[in-house]
């Protein structure tokens, strides 16, 4: 019963305040993604509130751009029909145009607002292609399902829920050397196997 009331209020809010509802949804899931990254992936003892505020604010802005404008633009350009061809084309356009820009924007946002000592260009050179490749593995099925099955009105919410996994990964990637961590894991596994 409580979930039904919450869902009704959320849908009403989407009808009356679509941009802000999507923005706050993105912020909430950005918060959750960074929280999971800090505590469960990075195993930090102290919660970094500034970092979380930066990632949360990014979720707020990014969801307006993607959830309100980019997805609507794809609908206008490709069409609203829920066909396999349209879903595939929207997925391809999203992953070739929006995804690379979104990754760079996230890196720039966290780098700038957290005053990272790592130069942005160095971070992009070091981690961009690894993140981008993992993005394809994650987002191809998520986006195809979104564009083929999920009604337009609920796509921002669906993408935000799906993004918890991606936001956790992106938060980890923005605050760590991804390739260095992966190489360390591979080396430790090889040592463990050879024993």
Automatic annotation (TrEMBL):
<protein>
    <recommendedName>
        <fullName>Peroxisomal membrane protein MPV17</fullName>
    </recommendedName>
</protein>
<dbReference type="Pfam" id="PF04117">
    <property type="entry name" value="Mpv17_PMP22"/>
</dbReference>
<dbReference type="InterPro" id="IPR007248">
    <property type="entry name" value="Mpv17_PMP22"/>
</dbReference>
<comment type="similarity">
    <text>Belongs to the peroxisomal membrane protein PXMP2/4 family.</text>
</comment>
<dbReference type="GO" id="GO:0005737">
    <property type="term" value="C:cytoplasm"/>
</dbReference>
<dbReference type="GO" id="GO:0016020">
    <property type="term" value="C:membrane"/>
</dbReference>
<keyword id="KW-0812">Transmembrane</keyword>
<keyword id="KW-0472">Membrane</keyword>
<feature type="transmembrane region" description="Helical">
    <location>
        <begin position="156"/>
        <end position="174"/>
    </location>
</feature>
<feature type="transmembrane region" description="Helical">
    <location>
        <begin position="129"/>
        <end position="150"/>
    </location>
</feature>
<feature type="transmembrane region" description="Helical">
    <location>
        <begin position="91"/>
        <end position="109"/>
    </location>
</feature>
<keyword id="KW-1133">Transmembrane helix</keyword>
């Amino acid at each position: 019963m409580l979930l039904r009331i919450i869902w009704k209020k959320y849908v009403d809010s989407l009808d009356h305040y679509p941009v802000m509802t999507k923005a706050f949804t993105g912020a909430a899931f950005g918060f959750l993604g960074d929280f999971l990254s800090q505590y469960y992936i990075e195993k930090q003892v102290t919660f970094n509130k500034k970092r979380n505020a930066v990632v949360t604010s990014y979720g707020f802005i990014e969801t307006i751009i993607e959830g309100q404008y980019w997805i609507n633009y794809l609908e206008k350009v490709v069409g609203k029909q829920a066909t396999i061809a349209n879903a595939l084309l929207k997925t391809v356009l999203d992953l070739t145009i929006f995804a690379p820009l979104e990754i760079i924007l996230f890196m720039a946002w966290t780098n700038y607002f957290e005053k990272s000592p790592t130069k942005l260009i160095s971070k992009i050179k070091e981690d961009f292609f690894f993140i981008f490749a993992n993005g394809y593995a994650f987002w191809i099925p998520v986006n195809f399902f979104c564009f083929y099955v999920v009604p337009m009105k609920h796509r921002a919410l669906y993408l935000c829920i799906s993004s918890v996994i991606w936001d956790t990964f992106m938060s980890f990637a923005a605050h760590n050397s991804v390739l260095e961590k992966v190489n360390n894991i591979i080396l430790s596994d090889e040592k463990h196997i050879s024993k």
